[in-house]
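Consider the tokenized backbone below.
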């Protein structure tokens, strides 16, 4: 079993709505338990009033059902609130508290309606709304990792990509729903989970595609653009080669080459060739491991240096990505544009990684200050201003 313990997201604001929802769910659970214990009502009466039920539908039940949980134990509410806490914080930081609250309720209603279509049984619980939260998280933070407690034969804490973790639970829900359709019993409302996940994924994508929610270097759209750009660079390198294959540490700037320097052997050449070959043959893990143990003096051709940084970022190795991008900027010197993208884009990328993933905004400040007087595109200006806004005192001490 996998139990999430946290993510690698650095939260830029207090998760007021997330904490409020958790507190409200726990208060209702405890309050109803007291009411039942005092004999003022029964569990059956409470569930009959608040559960979403196809044959006994009332307009308030798609919402009230979200705040009712199995009264016979703590596991139902415990897991729902744990997942809400783990994924809700980052999503609330991205959407804002009020919009996050609206999204949560809308996702829960969508999940309830999906259950009504698929099943005639009554349903309670926040699982559908939480599934919507995790679905949106998957779109907005696909390259993040989840710290999980795992036990099955062995017990340990592991960091796994969020896409694998959320994807696994989605697959289990899908298999559960298929089993239910073929007559398997069970008390889990799989259709509500699937409906919530679909709502979360689709809503987050619509918000990004329409520009209502500004795209960042952390979301799925940016990841797809980077993948396309990387594929184009590899294709161009295979077809035309690259002028940077034998570049020195000041690639892009004309250099004088005399006889003595030309005859000096390059100690990094064999390792450079290994890394470049691994990148172009899509052996990402090997390339990252070789670069991780490489000396600080090693520099790759610009296109490959950018590609390596992109792959490190995709693999959630933010420290290695920052190192690769910094080395690329050092090589370029005053050259503004080069293979892999503009220097200004890489400065923003480094700043974003330092602020949002590594929690070191102080190191990001020089890059953002350097961009203050640069002629940037509206999209880059928006990202720069967003990063500056996230560099609050609270963020720096988190």
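A designed sequence for it:
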């Amino acid at each position: 079993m996998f139990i999430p313990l946290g993510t690698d997201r650095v939260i830029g604001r207090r998760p007021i709505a997330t904490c409020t929802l958790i507190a409200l769910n726990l208060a209702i659970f405890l309050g109803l338990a007291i009411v039942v214990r005092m004999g003022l009502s029964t569990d059956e009466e409470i569930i009959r009033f608040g559960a979403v039920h196809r044959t006994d539908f009332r307009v308030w039940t798609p919402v009230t059902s979200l705040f009712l949980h199995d009264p016979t134990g703590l596991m139902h509410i415990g897991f729902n609130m744990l997942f809400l806490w783990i994924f809700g914080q980052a999503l609330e930081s991205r959407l804002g508290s009020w919009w996050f609250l609206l999204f949560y309720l809308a996702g829960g209603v969508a999940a309830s309606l999906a259950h009504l279509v698929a099943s005639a049984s009554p349903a309670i619980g926040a699982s559908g709304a939480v599934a919507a939260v995790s679905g949106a998280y998957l779109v907005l933070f696909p390259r993040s990792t989840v710290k999980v407690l795992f036990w099955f034969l062995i017990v340990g804490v592991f960091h796994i990509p969020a896409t694998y973790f959320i994807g696994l639970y989605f697959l289990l829900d899908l298999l559960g729903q298929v089993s239910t359709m073929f007559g398997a019993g069970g008390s889990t409302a799989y259709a509500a989970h699937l409906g919530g996940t679909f709502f979360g994924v689709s809503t987050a994508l619509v918000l990004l595609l329409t520009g209502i929610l500004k795209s960042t270097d952390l979301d799925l759209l940016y990841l797809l653009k980077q993948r396309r750009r990387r594929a184009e660079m590899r294709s161009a390198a295979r077809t035309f080669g690259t002028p940077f294959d034998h570049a020195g540490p000041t690639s892009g700037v004309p250099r004088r080459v005399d006889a003595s320097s030309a005859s000096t052997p390059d100690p990094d050449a064999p390792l450079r060739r290994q890394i470049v070959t691994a990148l172009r043959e899509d052996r990402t893990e090997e390339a990252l491991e070789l670069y991780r143990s490489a000396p600080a003096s090693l520099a790759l051709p610009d296109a490959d240096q950018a590609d390596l940084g992109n792959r490190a970022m995709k693999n959630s190795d933010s420290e290695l990505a920052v190192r690769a991008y910094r080395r690329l900027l050092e090589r370029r010197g005053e050259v503004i544009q080069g293979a892999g993208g503009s220097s200004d884009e890489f400065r923003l990328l480094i700043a974003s990684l330092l602020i949002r993933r590594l929690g070191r905004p102080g190191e990001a400040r020089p890059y953002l200050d350097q961009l203050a007087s640069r002629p940037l595109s509206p999209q880059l200006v928006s990202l720069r201003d967003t990063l500056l806004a996230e560099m609050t005192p609270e963020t720096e001490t988190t």
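The longest helix spans residues 16-37.
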